[in-house]
Amino acid sequence: MSRITRRDFLKFTGGAGAASTLGMLGISSTAHAAKHGNMGAHVVVVGGGFGGATCAKYLKRAGINVTLIEPSTKFVTCPFSNYVLGGTHKIENITHSYDALRNSGVKVVRDTVTDIDAAGKSVKLKGGKTLKYDRLVVSPGIDFKWDAIKGYSEQASQKMPHAWKAGPQTLLLRKQLENMKDGGTFILVAPPNPFRCPPGPYERASMVAYYLKNHKPKSKVLILDPKDAFSKQGLFQDGWKKLYGNMIEWVPGKAGGKVSAVDTKTMTVTGELDKFKGAVVNVIPAQTAGSIALKAGLANESGFCPVDPKTFESKIHKGIHVIGDSSIAGALPKSGFAANSEAKMCASAIAAMIKGEPIADVSFVNTCYSLIAPNYGISVAGVYRVTEKGIADVPGAGGVSPKEATDTFREEEAKYALGWYASITADTWG
Ligand SMILES: Cc1cc2nc3c(=O)[nH]c(=O)nc-3n(C[C@H](O)[C@H](O)[C@H](O)COP(=O)(O)OP(=O)(O)OC[C@H]3O[C@@H](n4cnc5c(N)ncnc54)[C@H](O)[C@@H]3O)c2cc1C
To answer: What is the pLDDT of residues 345-360, one digit of tens each?
Structure first.
């Protein structure tokens, strides 16, 4: 892909993508939607993250009566949480309120869904209420397989944080980094596939190294990985060498990187060949769909939820749509951008179903930016469409940043990352 085309593409997906996707959805005006179909239908959305908040917003724009259930008063994004660890951002910079959604007419209920009755079409809330729905959207993100590593548990995450759901865990890990002595080792235990944000662990290692280089330069970052390859690997490794010398070491599965046990008392991590002692240990456990999706029987043996790729309606329970990280979405990665894109397609499909209109053909976009340092950005971008085999890459569309690039090019990509964040969060919660 030529440089001009790629840059134009990134600008499109990062900046104007939201608006053009909306036009494509044909849900641009409430007035239009209100003329058609059963507009008294009620859609309940579970989870106010990237998928759920976007879906609620676009359903409302289509004139549909929508209730969003979310336990938090504000949402802290995982995207850019690695920069809080690196010290370039504060948690407030990545925290978003639900006020704009409320003001647009979405009924936002602060509660947790504890049960889904697929046959009776209702959800039970922790607060005691039961809500009826005509269609349900489930976007609860991920949960962890706590027992996948011996010695690790929810309680152990207070000593060895995962920080894979942003908020208190991010702040805890940041505090541990600040308290770490110069010369210590930061151990990052990477998760097996599939997991949310494929480049995320490696971006985290980069931003931790950025902080350590500037404040504790004798320290090391050790990544213990059960996998033998990772997203944007060559670009990350080139960047690490250039910016941090030998500070970051990656141990792949084939070299004994798979961790079988941790001990929070001794701060040790057991790999296949060695035991390692960390000053700070960040364990990112294996993942599943959000626990409510598992409890509702929406997941298959993979731990994630099979869906119709055109509508995101569950292949297990009709009338329930699963989007975002919890869904099995073919070639689409588990990313905030993908969740936002899926949410719009799902909102469009639900609006069509309610109005009795045909469901439009859909395509999806995703760009994942990663910063190796605040002025050194890299990205991977893709366009996807529904094929007979499910959601697949559109050949020739997207790609990764060039291996050889000037410092200015990397700096520009870092700026695009900031633009992407501003645009996607405004599209989701704004
Ligand atoms: C460190 C890190 C960096 C990342 N960087 C990027 C990036 O740069 N770009 C990118 O595109 N993606 C990135 N991601 C991935 C992105 O965060 C996820 O893919 C995205 O959040 C998925 O959206 P979702 O709606 O599925 O889940 P979430 O955004 O996690 O939202 C789930 C919501 O559901 C709520 N919920 C859960 N259970 C219930 C229940 N029972 N009742 C009610 N509510 C419930 C939760 O409280 C939560 O608010 C990153 C992830 C990590 C960990």
So the answer is: 999 999 999 999 999 9
Look at ligand 1, atom 17, and give the residue with the nearest C-alpha. 78
Asked which of 283, 298, 331 is the last residue of a domain, the reply is 283
Residue 12's domain is classified under what CATH number? 3.50.50.60
- 293 Cβ closer than 6 Å to some ligand 1 atom: no
Q: Could you tell which of 322, 325, 418 is best to mutate to test the pocket of ligand 1, judged by most ligand atoms within 8 Å of the CB?
A: 325
Average pLDDT over residues 205-224: 98
* End-of-domain residue from the set 283, 306, 325: 283
Indicate the pTM of the whole model: 0.93
Neighbours of 19 (CB within 10 A): 12
Residue 57 included in any domain: yes
The CA distance from 185 to 277, in Å, is 8
Q: What tokens were used for 287? A: 């993942």
229 with 304, same domain: the answer is no
- 374 C-alpha to ligand 1 centroid (Å): 23
Over residues 266-278, the pLDDT tens digits come to 999 999 999 999 9
Ligand 1 nearest-atom number relative to CA 72: 47
Whether residue 417 lies inside any domain: the answer is yes
Indicate whether 292 and 379 sit together in one domain.
yes
Distance CA 54, CA 346 (A): 10
Question: Residue 210 domain-assigned?
Answer: yes
Question: Cα separation of 60 and 106, whole Å?
Answer: 6
Is residue 27 within 8 A of residue 351, CB to CB? The reply is yes
Question: What is the rounded average pLDDT of the residues 168-183?
Answer: 98
Cβ neighbours of 398 (radius 10 Å):
21
Q: What's the mean pLDDT in 77-105? A: 98
Q: Is residue 95 included in any domain, yes or no?
A: no
State the Cα–Cα distance between residues 111 and 100, nearest whole angstrom: 18
User: What mean pLDDT value characterizes the chain?
Assistant: 92
| Axis crossing angle, helix 200-215 with helix 233-244, rounded to the nearest 10 | 0
- pLDDT over 50 (residue 395): yes
Q: How far apart are CA 61 and CA 63, in angstroms?
A: 5
C-alpha triplet 49, 305, 381: angle, nearest 5°:
60
Measured from the CA of 204, which atom of ligand 1 is nearest?
1
Total tally of structural domains belonging to the chain: 2
* Residue 424 CA, closest ligand 1 atom number: 11
Q: Quote the domain boundaries for residue 126.
A: 3-71+111-143+287-429
Distance between CA atoms of residues 7 and 362, nearest Å: 23
232 and 134 in one domain? no
Cβ–ligand 1 distance for 184 under 6 Å, the answer no
